[in-house]
UniProtKB/TrEMBL annotation, chain A:
The keyword Iron applies. The lineage of its organism: Bacteria, Pseudomonadati, Pseudomonadota, Gammaproteobacteria, Oceanospirillales. InterPro entries: Aldolase_TIM (IPR013785), DNA_rSAM_put (IPR023874), Elp3/MiaA/NifB-like_rSAM (IPR006638), Endo/Exo/Phosphatase_dom_1 (IPR051675), rSAM (IPR007197), rSAM_sf (IPR058240), RuvA_2-like (IPR010994). This is Putative DNA modification/repair radical SAM protein. SMART domains: Elp3 (SM00729). Its cofactor is [4Fe-4S] cluster. It comes from the Bacteria. Residues 50-289 form the Radical SAM core domain. Pfam families: Radical_SAM (PF04055). GO terms for molecular function: catalytic activity; iron-sulfur cluster binding; metal ion binding. Keywords: Iron, Iron-sulfur, Metal-binding, S-adenosyl-L-methionine.
TrEMBL record, chain B:
Residues 87-255 form the DUF4130 domain. Pfam families: DUF4130. It comes from Kushneria avicenniae. InterPro entries: DNA_repair_put (IPR023875), DUF4130 (IPR025404). It comes from the Bacteria. Residues 273-295 are annotated as: Disordered. NCBIfam families: SAM_7_link_chp. This is Probable DNA metabolism protein.
Length: 404, 295
């Protein structure tokens, strides 16, 4: 098979994994040195495809031959897709060539499981090692870890990769058992602990070997099973606290050709995925607890974002006075982000806050209006009931569709 | 009080900083300074620079944190249009206000501070754009051209981002020799050192630049194959693509030839599935649980 053909097969096979950010690597440079590549902690999107997604890394599978039969996956052994396998050299060549042309910032490599877990993992590590040692490649490398691979191979992967990730795949262990019978929640979590321990060791011990400096992340497919957002967010919160995850990525289930009957035939609304990302961000960046965002079983509202939904449910806490409120509460006002909250705080040390300052800070005025007071502004809606307020906020923001 | 005219043609932040320091020392208020630069028409009648006055009896001086200085410098890379205030005048008014004790002048909530903020953002954004969307084309290298660049790129930035681009690409490219051309100047790197060359003083003319930029690169098939295949038609979202990758950059990106086709294909049917339709028609193979593949 021609290299171009392999690339078509193995990029198509890898595109359902959304966890391909290129951030979090330490500062590295090749200035005036042998070798190639740099990282500076921030990811770069070198292109965008018409699905609006960022192309930062060469995202491919080493092979889409796979012994497993995960029902949601296009590469499962019972799927009738063209199969291909890259050699180590082919992946290395593609990565370096794309990198020099400034098309990518590095490699995101994953694989179907061939022969055995260790055999597969070993092959992935070999690619990373060749890039790093032989070619002195200092760009970004993200390796998807095979959960059942031996801890020793995972440690080796950590020597070369900037980020390691193990996918939890599905929101609950029951779903995993049903849809990915060869995988197990226990081994997945075991692999995540191995990575966490490696990370902890590397931070605690200055002389410890390098280990995945960009941390670890995971991905969860949403909408392939029945799990609701309440359960998802609860589990996500515990994942964050147990495994020091940098990020959890959500991937709305994409219907696949010749779909087995165990998974749905239609995709969940992309807006659901978007709301989960928003909720996730509130948990990571704003100190929200999963239970605050959804107090009982069910899904996040598709009509309004989770921060606004939370504020509407807590009318008794608002409006707050921007000159005196805690920073923590300012950041919880819909329409005011963490950065703006900091800027408000800096500004109020110079003088009192005026309503027009907020426009200049780029806050979303329509959203925040009912929730704040300043020396020259008091919301008219202060007395409005939740429902009336919701109706008013929604009038010019038609329910959704924005994403499509 | 006298009006002072300062010529800022090809000026950089360091020149401005020198002038600003002396103006503050002489307590010249912003209203009495006319900054003339190539990107603003300035006042055409106020020709001939004026000598700056000597320091006043109680000279003004200003201490800025590194962060504040960096913000000012970044804002100075903003190329204003004819309708916007000259960058040097804005910067001087801000430092004047700071020197007068108006601490808010650099904060995003202030009216001047907001413009600074907006310009800092625009410049940083453009820096990001050149890092992301610039495309290097490999050049044939033989013994005859041992010192010729191995990679060249053409880019049309909106603000003065050459310096920031140079720093970035020298980190990335190791010992490769490369050349980035823009309408306003080029960065030339020999694998160790780099310098910026302006078309009016350097060895290249704008015509050379354009000729080089229009050179074809036929080795882009792999990238095009990848781009089409990593696209998921079931998630078509044109708006986000265009917002994140403004179309003014497409001209020099090889994937431009694919975009319209991929979109219309996704609209007409392919949108149900994520798979690349080139694969749907090909013979597949399933695998037995013992690992043997079946055709
Ligand atoms: S192990 Fe499962 S998810 Fe991974 S490639 Fe194989 S079938 Fe797909």
């Amino acid at each position: 098979m021609q290299l171009t053909d392999k690339l078509i097969v193995l990029a198509d096979a890898a595109k359902y994994d959304a966890s391909c950010a290129s951030s979090g690597a330490p500062k590295r440079s090749s200035k005036g040195q042998k070798g190639l590549g740099a990282t500076n902690g921030n990811g770069i999107c070198h292109s965008f495809t018409p699905d609006g997604r960022c192309v930062a890394l060469l995202k491919i599978l080493m092979t889409n031959f796979c012994l497993y039969d995960c029902q949601y996956c296009i590469n499962r052994r019972s799927s009738n897709v063209p199969r291909a396998r890259f050699s180590v050299d082919e992946i290395v060549r593609l990565t370096l060539d794309f990198y020099r042309r400034n098309l990518i910032s590095g490699l995101f490599l994953s694989s179907g499981i061939i022969r055995s877990n260790d055999y597969t993992m070993e092959a992935l590590v070999r690619v990373a090692r060749t890039l790093r040692i032989e070619h002195q490649f200092r760009g970004y490398i993200h390796l998807k870890t095979i959960p059942d691979a031996s801890p020793d191979l995972i440690r080796q992967a950590g020597l070369y990769a900037d980020r390691l990730s193990v996918n939890v795949e599905l929101p609950t262990s029951q779903s995993l058992e049903r849809l990915a019978p060869e995988k197990s929640d226990t081994t997945i979590r075991h692999a995540m602990s191995t990575i966490r321990d490696g990370l902890e060791e590397a931070t605690a011990e200055p002389k410890a070997p390098r280990f995945s400096p960009g941390g670890q992340s995971t991905q969860m497919i949403v909408g392939a099973d029945e799990t609701d957002d309440h359960t998802i967010l609860g589990n996500v919160q515990s994942l964050y606290s147990q495994y020091h995850l940098k990020r959890v990525y959500y991937s709305a289930f994409s219907p696949i050709p010749e779909s087995p009957s165990s998974v749905p035939l239609i995709a969940p609304p992309l807006l659901r995925e978007h709301r989960l990302y928003q909720a996730d961000f509130l948990i990571r960046g704003y100190g929200f607890h999963a239970d605050e965002l959804l107090t009982g079983p069910g899904n996040l509202s598709l009509d309004i974002d989770p921060k606004l939904a939370w504020a509407l449910n807590h009318r008794e806490l608002f409006p707050i006075d921007l000159d005196s409120a805690d920073m923590y509460m300012i950041a919880r006002v819909p329409g005011i982000g963490v950065t703006s909250a900091h800027r408000i705080d800096t500004l109020r040390r110079e003088r009192r806050i005026r309503y027009s300052d907020l426009t200049r800070l780029g806050c979303s005025m329509k959203k925040l209006a009912p929730f704040i007071t300043t020396q020259d502004y008091r919301p008219r809606q202060a007395g409005l009931e939740r429902h009336a307020l919701l109706a008013q906020l929604q009038t010019s923001t038609p329910a959704q569709m924005a994403l499509l | 009080m006298t009006m002072y005219t300062l010529h800022m043609t090809r000026a950089n932040f360091t020149c401005w900083r020198d002038d600003a320091r002396r103006l503050l020392a002489a307590r010249v208020p912003p209203g009495n300074v006319l900054w003339q630069s190539e990107d603003s028409a300035g006042d055409l009648f106020a020709s001939g620079g004026t000598d700056l006055p000597p320091p006043a009896e109680a000279p003004l001086a200003l201490r800025l944190s590194r962060h504040e200085l960096r913000r000012l410098e970044c804002a100075s890379h903003y190329w204003h249009t004819h309708h916007q205030e000259c960058r040097w005048a804005l910067l001087y008014r801000v430092v004047w206000r700071l020197a007068m004790g108006e601490g808010e002048a650099l904060l995003a909530g202030d009216s001047d501070g907001a413009i600074i903020e907006q310009r800092v953002k625009a410049v940083s954004h453009e820096v990001h754009h050149i890092h992301a969307f610039l495309r290097f084309h490999p050049q044939p290298v033989d013994d005859e051209h041992q010192h010729a660049p191995e990679f060249i790129a053409w880019f049309e930035p909106r603000h003065d981002v050459l310096e920031a681009a140079a720093q970035h690409f020298i980190d990335r490219m190791g010992q490769h020799r490369w050349l980035i051309m823009t309408p306003g100047g080029a960065i030339i790197c020999d694998g160790r050192q780099w310098h910026i060359e302006r078309p009016e003083t350097g060895a290249f003319t704008v015509k050379d630049y354009q000729a080089l930029a229009e050179m074809e690169d036929d080795a882009e098939d792999l990238w095009l194959a990848y781009y089409a295949s990593t696209f998921n038609p079931a998630r078509l979202n044109e708006k986000t693509m265009v917002r994140s990758m403004p179309s003014r950059f497409w001209q020099h990106m090889p994937e431009r030839v694919l975009i319209t086709g991929l979109i219309s294909h996704a609209r007409h049917g392919a949108q149900r599935l994520g798979q690349d339709s080139r694969l749907a028609t090909r013979r597949g193979r399933t695998i037995a649980s013992n690992g043997k593949s079946r055709h």
